[in-house]
Description:
4 copies of one chain form a homotetramer.
Chain A: E1 2-3, H1 14-22, H2 35-47, E2 54-58, H3 61-72, E3 77-82, H4 86-89, H5 94-97, E4 102-105, H6 114-125, E5 135-142, H7 153-165, E6 170-173, H8 177-181, H9 190-195, E7 199-203, E8 213-217, H10 226-232, H11 241-252, H12 255-276, E9 289-290, E10 293-295, H13 296-302, E11 306-307, E12 309-313, E13 318-324, H14 331-351
Parallel strand pairs in A: 1-11, 3-4, 3-5, 5-6, 6-7
Antiparallel strand pairs in A: 2-8, 7-8, 9-13, 10-13, 12-13
Helix pairs in contact in A: 1-11, 2-11, 6-7, 12-14
Amino acid sequence: MIRFECDxxxxxxxxILQRLISTNMEQTSGYGTDPHCHRARNLIRQACxxxxxxxxxxxxxxxxxxxxxxSTLRPYQGVIAATSGHIAVHETGAIEATGHKVxxxxxxxxxxxxxxxxxxxxxxxxxxxPEHCVQPGMVYISQPSENGTxxxxxxxxxxxxxSQQCGLPFFIDGARLGYALASRNCDxxxxxxxxxxxxxxxxxxxxxxxxxxxxVILNNKLKPDFRYMIKQRGGLLAKxxxxxxxxxxxxxxxxxxxxxxxxxxxxxxxxxxxxxxGIAFLYDSPTNQQFPILPxxxxxxxxxxxxxxxxxxxxxxxxxxxxxxxxxxxxENVDSLLRDISxxxxxxxxxx
Amino acid sequence: MIRFECDxxxxxxxxILQRLISTNMEQTSGYGTDPHCHRARNLIRQACxxxxxxxxxxxxxxxxxxxxxxSTLRPYQGVIAATSGHIAVHETGAIEATGHKVxxxxxxxxxxxxxxxxxxxxxxxxxxxPEHCVQPGMVYISQPSENGTxxxxxxxxxxxxxSQQCGLPFFIDGARLGYALASRNCDxxxxxxxxxxxxxxxxxxxxxxxxxxxxVILNNKLKPDFRYMIKQRGGLLAKxxxxxxxxxxxxxxxxxxxxxxxxxxxxxxxxxxxxxxGIAFLYDSPTNQQFPILPxxxxxxxxxxxxxxxxxxxxxxxxxxxxxxxxxxxxENVDSLLRDISxxxxxxxxxx
Amino acid sequence: MIRFECDxxxxxxxxILQRLISTNMEQTSGYGTDPHCHRARNLIRQACxxxxxxxxxxxxxxxxxxxxxxSTLRPYQGVIAATSGHIAVHETGAIEATGHKVxxxxxxxxxxxxxxxxxxxxxxxxxxxPEHCVQPGMVYISQPSENGTxxxxxxxxxxxxxSQQCGLPFFIDGARLGYALASRNCDxxxxxxxxxxxxxxxxxxxxxxxxxxxxVILNNKLKPDFRYMIKQRGGLLAKxxxxxxxxxxxxxxxxxxxxxxxxxxxxxxxxxxxxxxGIAFLYDSPTNQQFPILPxxxxxxxxxxxxxxxxxxxxxxxxxxxxxxxxxxxxENVDSLLRDISxxxxxxxxxx
Amino acid sequence: MIRFECDxxxxxxxxILQRLISTNMEQTSGYGTDPHCHRARNLIRQACxxxxxxxxxxxxxxxxxxxxxxSTLRPYQGVIAATSGHIAVHETGAIEATGHKVxxxxxxxxxxxxxxxxxxxxxxxxxxxPEHCVQPGMVYISQPSENGTxxxxxxxxxxxxxSQQCGLPFFIDGARLGYALASRNCDxxxxxxxxxxxxxxxxxxxxxxxxxxxxVILNNKLKPDFRYMIKQRGGLLAKxxxxxxxxxxxxxxxxxxxxxxxxxxxxxxxxxxxxxxGIAFLYDSPTNQQFPILPxxxxxxxxxxxxxxxxxxxxxxxxxxxxxxxxxxxxENVDSLLRDISxxxxxxxxxx
Lengths: 352, 352, 352, 352
């Protein structure tokens, strides 16, 4: 079974494992106060070109989103997100469990627009009795989105502008951030992105680490006491250095972008090959997740050798599925997948 | 600097690291559904001599306590714990953040008694207006306690009995469980303990793992939908196999107890050596944490070479400190510590 | 200024005030344990033809919805409701503040269908990883709905059936229940409704009381410890008899339905008069809220003498507004309103 | 049965009822936006000699404490209170249900000291890892305390000073505030108290109103968006004017203090009469709650005619009970109680 179902099917990049071994018997203090975390924080600040940024390491994505959002909102506030946003659908109500509503706006491709933010905000402040409704208190997006799509620099700028006009902190979930930065038409650097939001996180779990996410807080108002929030929400790892060592490795000489690039390259092989054969895609994704529309018969065959994610049925005979690549995807597995799909497509064509 | 300040100063036992490397490029499904988690669960069920137990892997202690407790209590219930219990003092209000009160009972040594449970329970049900007060809904203890002390089998039995009489699920926090099981006067096995509670967890973070705790649910009523709780509270690790691989390694041939034994042996070296020299201890701890009462001058000197935890001042001239050993503690470091303490003690005696 | 903006513009029905005066210096115990609450509970049980029902009195609607829902759901569950449901839009996130998601389904008229419940439920249980999503745990509707529309007995039966099939408690918000029961094509009694759900409440605030809602719990599983929930959520009124006295008055000889009937009669005067003049309505409401589509110019004029609620714009020249009647609405005010609307309509017609 | 068990055994002062009747058919807008609430707010501002104060009306005490505290604290903060504080013992965990710990300090008489606040605060900031513990975020006291005792002006000043030094908002629960202000050795006015805290509330439920508490916010930082909090926590009464009308009546010509004075006078009759006969008291209360230590045999007899609250057993033969007086207590009932106690005391003496 060759797996394309997600971007966390394997362990960690081998340099991370090597580093864990070489540092294993060092004695350090706990909870992220060790020299590795310290160095990793500095490396990330440099990559963000922002010496004042606060950098914290948490274990996983749900925990990170919950901690950032619960730390920012007042009790009667909610966070604006796409209906397809991770916090809206795939975190078992973790945001609500902190007491906050996710205020959803519709999205066809996983992205939201500045107008949508403005409409929600203005509808609220123009309501005759706003105190009867949840007050918008934050804007959440994912870059790239859960559908693989990506915001351009101009789009981020516009979202950040409208958020600031509305007084709403702008939070970017970067669980797969590397795969956006490494995409072929990406027009922004990590430093650009760090200038276009109040807080974001750099995903490690899905990009080469065993686990771990690095929260980067740019807005001074969001900085105080964040460690209390991490601890309360279960994210302050006793052996915090595990996270420091991983991000140190990922950021000391460009490994993060390098392995992201590999994943995107593998995804583009899939995309371009299928597109050439006339296959359509549900979303126009330049990143590591691809959503082709394929014949159900073909998918049935493919399941014998490959794992991938069923997304949705689009007709009596066709469905959308998701193929994920990652830092660990092997070229020969992609070739094999594409070869098998091509053969099946030809076979089915021949039948007709 | 030689560290005795806690039991998570180093990385992980080398066999765990080796296993992470040897399995690194395996492709597995996520969130604890992989073969390693499956096997680790079976090994733990065997060690507990309970084939029906549900076993779940979470990342850290605060998260584990929060998830178990929030999953068990009704909204108006609280959990009974010692004033010194980890959930009462060192989790930044994580239990309260799930909406529940920690109902504390006083404790000199970190342990609570069946009578204390009974008194809280009866005071509540005999109150004329019980609905004005938090209803006791669970009993929480740590084995060993935060002070290194240990419950005997008879004591656990008595606590479990009274909990059952009161209809209160009995939960044992085993963050350092191995260090209790390996202590020299321990009269119980893991399987014994698993028969004496409704739910408990086996700590990995403090005993050889990079991170990870294994929750073992014995009571059928506490089993349904526990994975929803883990996910909502941020504990469902994407690469869940990291936890499975570690517990597989710890439980496949007795490594967990073996390394716990080492830590306890090192602690006993400290204990016996100091006791012989007439040093008193704040708590009578047979486990990996030792709390000697030492002269402040001596401690001042010691700090140049060793890290340890200040606990409390007991007189104008003496303080209690905590020395922790762990699976990773090296004999030569213990010898060095004891040598330096002896020399200082002699020096101070000579002065007098 | 004559007010039609809501159904709580006045104080209380005079018989309630008289009863408050005549009982004022009685000494009774607090928190709903007094003889008036006792008698009111019995009267409501009789009206529901269910001697086993638990009846509790709370102060307001948001509090009641929050208490019932938080008492029913497990931490990872959410409540299914229409997008227009009161709990989804007008309670400042009170449900989320208890940790639960409101799972909304679209609705044009304020009502939801059994199919919508089934789709949400089946989508969840058929999800490959349901524990990553909020689990549906309850169904919430309002009878009549926030848009004045009403479920028939058959519709309630169908919703209750599907809820039971899915194992979801079915909760009816009856903030305006009397106005449904008194509507001209209502085919159910209070006792019928009490057989078609697990829990519901009878609104007092909007139907003749100073304040107060009576929760009726039919399902035995939802009964235990409900008073703890009321107390914790701030609903256990010290002078609980105030609520008992009011519901005693409303239910001892049919006052509740009698005054509801008056409100509906007044609403039908408005409805029939406007309909005769060719005015269309946004919702087909047989209850005390009417939503006519009127020319903006006319509305502008009307605002000088009458208060009512702007609902939404439907064209460049027309808007929907809401007129509410209540137990306290005076016939001459309705006549005056209708006269003024007719004159304006004629004037505008004459212009054309 | 003559009741002295609490201060909410009767309805409301008759002037309040008269006002409810005379205003009953006025049409006003809802949720506290009506002229009566407006006027009541102004009267309270005047009584507080603070034109900038925000005044809000809520329904009950638990709700008020919860709303004020949840509005003030950050998620990881707790509120310092006496172990006997109402929020610590008699609100079914309502504060914890908002996610916050009540940090208790011991108290013999219901009062806390500036030193206790300082110690909690300093222990926290001097902790090596403060983020592992709940951060003190507010100070809560009751004036008078739950035990009837009272803070002097100097004591309030000292508590306010230390709170400000520690950056902790200082909140006074005034559920029985009138009974403190009217006590014979009270050295402060309402305006004095309003200068000595950040936020407090004036209790109506226990002092002449049907229900209702008036929150007075002095500190500008605590003012924004408070109505959102009230609504979310179920305290925004639809017919808000009910609260406005009551506080208007209580504050327009001194009624609040006048009826409080009556209650205190009745309590002092009890106190002085018993003291004269050599009866000791558990607390030195100058307010409307009296806690005499009486022979169990006498109490047994007394229960046939009077209701009062058992407090605690102090010896094999004696217990403490609580007698409450209120604005509604009738002199003849007090006389009767004292006569019966005297007779019993003499009878028992005669036996000896």
